[in-house]
Structures are given as C-alpha cells and as structure tokens.
Amino acid sequence: MKKVMVKLDNVKKDYEGKKIIKGISLDIYEGEFLTLLGPSGCGKTTLLRTISGLEKVSSGKIYIDGEDVTDVIPRKREVNTIFQNFALFSHMTVEKNIGFGLKMKKVPKSEIKTRVKEVIELIQMEGFEDRKPTQLSGGQQQRVALARGIVNKPKVLLLDEPLSSLDMKLRKQMQVELKRIQKKMGITFIYVTHDQDEALSMSDRVAIINNGVIEQIDTPRKLYDAPKTKFVADFIGESNQFNAVVVSTQNDEATIKLEIDLEIKVKNNHYDVGEKLTVIIRPEQFRLAREKDITNCFVVKTKEHIYSGSFTKVLGKVGKKEIEFIIYNDDDYTKNEEVKLKFSSDDIVILEENNEE
Amino acid sequence: MQRHKHLKNLFIFLVFLFLYLPIITLIVFSFNTSPLNILFEGFTLEWYGKLFSNTTLLDALKNTIIVSVVSTAVSTFIGTLAAIGLQKYNFIGKNFINKLLYVPVVIPEIVLGISLLSVYTLLKLNLGLGTLIVSHIAFSIPFVIISVRTVINSTNLQIEEAAHDLGANDFKTLTNVIIPEIMPGIISGATLAFTLSLDDVIISYFTAGPGSNTLPLQIYAMIKTGITPDVNALTTLMILVIMTVLIISSLIQVRKMKKEYVR
C-alpha cells in the first residue's frame, strides 16, 4: 500500500454564492504525478490553490503527509507552487530567485549556495546564475520557476498550467523535462492543465474535473479505453456517441438499437430490455467493412476528408448523425460518397445512461 | 532630400535656442563685472564670492534643503504604503479615494496654499519650518501615490503569492519582494516630490513664517528690486547641481542597460 501524501476530504469552495468546488475527496500518493484536467472554469486551479493554502476551503479537510493543514497558512505548508505566469522576482538574479525560499527559512548561506548550485545543474542552466528573469527566454524562465520550487524539497509541488505560455515545441520539450525531474527528485507533483495531451503524456493518474466535481480518476490509458461518463469520453480524445436502447437480450449477447435506426449486437452486461444506453465508438475503432460483413456495420455518407500525414480523418453522416472515423493511408480506400464501416463490439464502450446526472 | 534635412536641423536648432537662450544668458551674466544685466563688460567671479558671504541666501538654501529632503522622505514613505494599500485591500469608498487623489494635483496651488494657511491659523499654529514641511508633504503625497500606483498596476501581483508560498511572512514579502519590485515607481515619485518641493513658491509663500524663508522665496523677494548678479550666480550653481545629478543618473542607467543587454 502506497503512502498517501495529500488527502482531500469532501473539500468545498464557494465564491460569492457560487459553488466552485462541490465536494471533492481525493487521495494522492507519495511520488505520484497526478494531473487535474478539465475545461476552463471547472475549478481545477481553485482546487490546487486550496492545497497550497492560497485559497481557503469553505468546508472539508485537507491533509498533507497525514497532518491536517486545513487552517495552516501557505508559508507554513510544505508545498510549493509553480505559477502559470512564473511569478519570478524580476529584481533578483536567477540565483537569488532560486535561493529565496531557503533564505526565508533561514538556511545557512553556504548550504543555500550548494543547494542552488545543485538545482541549477538539474535544470541545466549553468552560467545563467547572474542573469535577471527579463534576460531569459520563456523556457528558461520556466526552468527557473521550477527550480525555485524544487530547491526547497517540498513534500508536494503544485504546478498551475506551467507550460501554457510556451510555444508548442518548447512545451513538448518541457513535458519530457518535467517528468525527468519529477522522477529524479521523487517529489509528488500535482499538475493542473486543460491540455489533454499534456495530461496523458506525463501523468501517473489523471483526475477529470467538470463543474466542481471529479468525473473520473484513473490512469491515462484507462481514461481513454474505459471512460465512465459521456463527459470523459468526449473530453479525452475524439468520440462518436450514440444514444441507444436495449431491444432484446440473449444469454451473453444483447441486441441494442442506436438512435440512427441501426441494430447492433454487443456483449450482454445484465441489461434489461428497454434500458437506455450510450454507445461510444472512437474514430479509430472503425474499420472498412468488406462485402461479407453483415453485423455491426454502418453505411456512412462521407462529407469531408482531412489529410493528417499517416492517416486521414473522414467526416460523414449516418442518417442525420454526424460521425467521424479514421482511414489509414495504407488502407485499401478510395474517396467514395458512401463507405461501409464495421467495428468490434469488444472495443467499444457502453455506458448505462443512468450513471449520467 | 538634402534641403529637407537642413530645414529639419534648423528647426531643431531654433527650438533648442528658444529653450536654452535664457539659461545661457543667465549663466553668462553671472560672470559679468557690471551689476546690470544689460551689457557684458568683463569677466569676474566677484558675485560668486559675494554669494557665499550672503548669510540670508545661505540660510534660505539651508531651509530649502531641510524642507525638501524631509518632505520627500516622509511623503515617499506615506505615499508608497498608501499606493500598496490602495491596490491590495478592498474597502468601501476605495474608488472615491482613488479619484480624490487627483484633486490636489489639479486644483490651483494658490487655493491649496490659502487653505493650508487657514487650517494653520485655525489651529493657532506658528508658521515656520514645521508648517512648511507639513504643507510640502501634503501636496507631494498624491504625486508619489500616482507614480507608485502606475508601476504597481504593471507589476505581476502573483509575486506576492509566490513569496508567501516560498515561506516569506508579510513583512519580508513587503521589504524583500514588493518594495524592490516597485522601486522604479518609488524613485520617480520621490524625484517628483523633491523637485516640486525644491522650487515651490506659491504654497511656501503662504505657509512659511519668519526665519523659514526658502531659496525660491528669497529669490522672489530679491528680484522685486531688480535682478542682481548674485542671483544669477546662485541660479547658475543650482543649474550646475541639477545637471550633475542628471548626468550621473543617466550614466548609471546607461551602465545598467549595458550590463543587462550586452551579454
């Protein structure tokens, strides 16, 4: 059993009568890279700020390393934050910026010097010690902000969309860098982002937050392969969602009817006849069907082909329903007005309607 | 194109001539042997010597320095903290106070002078250096607040949270982070306060008492009987001091810029 580093117990936050966080409970383990992912305004940054103490909770408890810190002020918490806009002290050199936290904790000067030197090596910024933040590029400022946090060896490092102001290429580079540093230092990272690529590529676990509640918390792979709600399926990756109703059930097989007037056969999961379901099919789960395929087939009227290098994304319509699917460029495919698609009932995700709302 | 360039240069020359001719005249006549500012008759340093034996002027100089240094220090301190407070805290009437700040800046100085005088009379205070300093502090504060506030508004305020997050208490955050970060605004506010105090005539005229004459007041009194060459000499010295300060400060800035960008 892994040690719980941060424990949130039914945390709620109201702001001017508006419920921002509606009761979140969450265990974050030691050394874990956990991402809070959600659309803007979902409460993920507020949640992060309650952990740092910069925001007070309206109710609920927060524990860090077993200790109740709900009413502890930010500077007494053993956490550090990396801010979205870095918040570097522009009048201080890189070295002074990084050493600030240690200086405030009255660490002896000689120790500050060696520890600052260590993290400067870690972030590969040797030779920049005497520069001011304004003389650094965005990526370098990002590294300094990171170093300023980790030099204090906090129990938890909170990162509030730290890469959002960097350009695409730099962002990819920093993602690798962040993960490397996190592994090396073994510090628990809680990372806030609205960028699903970032979340999926770096995290051990991702908590999907929507409207102030956690929709699902899982490993990136599980979130994609087995989303538990329509929101998660829609937010992580692309998905075609169909309303469906159970028509008949046999022993281990059920026949369900999609909203596009198509009956498909799926595995029976104790369904009742008449039960409402949501069927989720990822664009890449469609395959081109051959003549002999009869079950679980779609006839799609294609509308648009979007070429993307190794594959082509196709937008089309089944009846009135818009769907999208992917054709790999080595597939035996010519642009047609109509194309027949199939999918395997093992791959697709079926949600029971009633676990929504 | 070439003719254009000449015209441009001529225009610039005329502008500068218009700006600096009076000052040059003043400097030249401060070395004039004739006591009248009409004809230059010969070179002398007599007036400078006379200046340093004129105790009235030297007393006025001393008063001016005391008043402007003290009022600058106090108004910069109060104004800076006020600007930070006005930014940081929300309270009823904050907007009103923010607007109210501009009133002392825009109302005629003579109104301010008279109103300060009537307050002092009401309180039965004896006019002197004290009342003079208080008056100068009063009219300088809004300028400091406005100048500091401009810098605060363009500062990333998350640095305050960052400082708390890194373990700094409120006092350390203020002294180690906020104040150094907004220092450019504080310096320009202080400079403004100092120059305003240094050459203020109108408000000082109403609020100074016997024995607390400042240099501008003294000069004003002296020229009632015609400009004497020792006034010329005095103002030349003042120009010299101001020029020196300007040159030093711009040299420091140039060096700082070189240090930061030419790497």
Give an account of the 3D structure:
The complex is a heterodimer of chains A (357) and B (263). Chain A is α+β, with helices and mostly antiparallel strands and 357 residues long. Chain A has 8 helices and 20 strands. Chain A folds into 2 domains: 4-235, P-loop containing nucleotide triphosphate hydrolases (Rossmann fold); 240-355, no CATH class. In chain A, 24% of the residues lie in helices and 37% in strands. Chain A has a 6-stranded mixed beta sheet, with helices on both faces. In chain A, strands 13-12-11-14-20 form a 5-stranded antiparallel beta sheet. Chain A has a 5-stranded antiparallel beta sheet with strand order 15-19-16-17-18, with no helix packed on it. With 263 residues, chain B is mostly helical. Chain B is built from 13 helices and no strands. Chain B has helices at 2-29, 46-53, 55-88, 94-100, 103-106, 109-122, 129-153, 158-165, 170-181, 183-198, 202-207, 215-222, 229-261. In chain B, helix 1 (2-29) crosses helix 13 (229-261) and helix 3 (55-88) runs antiparallel to helix 10 (183-198). The model of chain B has no long low-confidence stretch (mean pLDDT 88). The A-B interface holds A 52, 54, 73-75, 79-81, 83, 85, 87-92, 100-101, 104-105, 131-132, 134-135, 148, 152 and B 156, 158-159, 161-169, 172, 176-177, 180-181, 183, 260-261, 263.
Tally the beta strands of chain A.
20
- The CATH topology of the domain at 56-233 in chain B corresponds to MetI-like fold
Largest interface: A-B, 26 and 21 residues
What radius of gyration of chain B results from the CA coordinates? 23 Å
CATH superfamily of the domain at 56-233 in chain B: MetI-like
What's the overall geometry of chain B? globular
Shape designation of chain A: elongated
- What is the correct CATH architecture of the largest domain in chain A? 3-Layer(aba) Sandwich
Placed side by side, the strands forming the largest sheet of chain A appear as 6-7-8-3-9-10
Helix and strand sequence of chain B: HHHHHHHHHHHHH
Helical segment count of chain B: 13
The name of the CATH topology of the largest domain in chain A is: Rossmann fold
Give the helix/strand class of chain B.
mainly alpha
* Percent strand of chain B: under 5%
End-to-end distance of chain A: 33 Å
Helix and strand succession of chain A?
A: EEEHEEEHHHEHEHEEHHEEEEEEEEEE
* Average pLDDT rating of chain B: 88
Low-confidence stretches of chain B: none
